[in-house]
């Protein structure tokens, strides 16, 4: 069964609120647990699957030359897990990274590295590509070699700016995010009764939701539901689909998102949210999954 529903007793800040999580179930435990702890009814509709890249050879080649790099930049937990698994598969060890300055885009990514025994040298204050560049603003990167393992189709901002500053940048794909295959009508079924909020934790979760439902149908189905985004990049993706972002996390973490949701439903705007039944157009088939082409924290 695709969906799992969690509830706690009444008299909590999110009691009576039905909230959808679109993140991969394997990575949603913190978000789910925090929402349930505040009384929310949580419905999981994962909109992304993680798959290996088309070829491991570019990464394997980079790993064989790992001592030639000065910096290693990781921009997602999935990037960390895929990179370290491949490092081990190639006969390498975590200690092979000792000579590199390691940067993580946010605390979750840093925690995944630390759990594997990798020392993290810097984490930006702003948990996105722009923040990572800000963390490197006082580094002389001319002639320095950067290795950036990341998702297929991720934003090009960091590699482009580093090259403009004179760095040598090697970008390697370590995974790709794709939309899962769902039974016909599955999302419609899971959106009944209508949720009060839907969380999006990456641009991938937004874009794949649109691929699974169809953009026009998504706009119709989500009208009146509070859309909760983990950060500015994800919010931009939501707005490009013609949808309104009611909630944005600050900081851009799972717990930051939960706190933003709590504050929203404690505000006059959030308290005025009415969970009315709306008839959604019936379709017999879902849109086919496609390869995701956006940056992702997932």
Given helix and strand content, the structural type is: alpha/beta
Tell me about the biggest sheet? 6 strands, mixed
Mean residue pLDDT: 89
Number of helices: 12
Q: Judging by the overall fold, what is the CATH architecture of the largest domain?
A: 3-Layer(aba) Sandwich
Distance between the termini: 22 Å
Question: Could you tell me the number of beta strands?
Answer: 11
CATH topology of the largest domain: Rossmann fold
Integer tally of domains: 2
How much of the sequence lies in strands comes to: 15-25%
- Identify the CATH class of the largest domain: Alpha Beta
- Secondary-structure element string: EEHEEHEHEHHEHEHEHHEHEHH
Reading side by side through the largest sheet, how are the strands ordered? 1-3-2-9-10-11
Poorly predicted residue ranges: 276-297
What brief labels describe this structure?
298 residues, alpha/beta, Rossmann fold, six-stranded mixed beta sheet, five-stranded mixed beta sheet, 35% helix, disordered C terminus
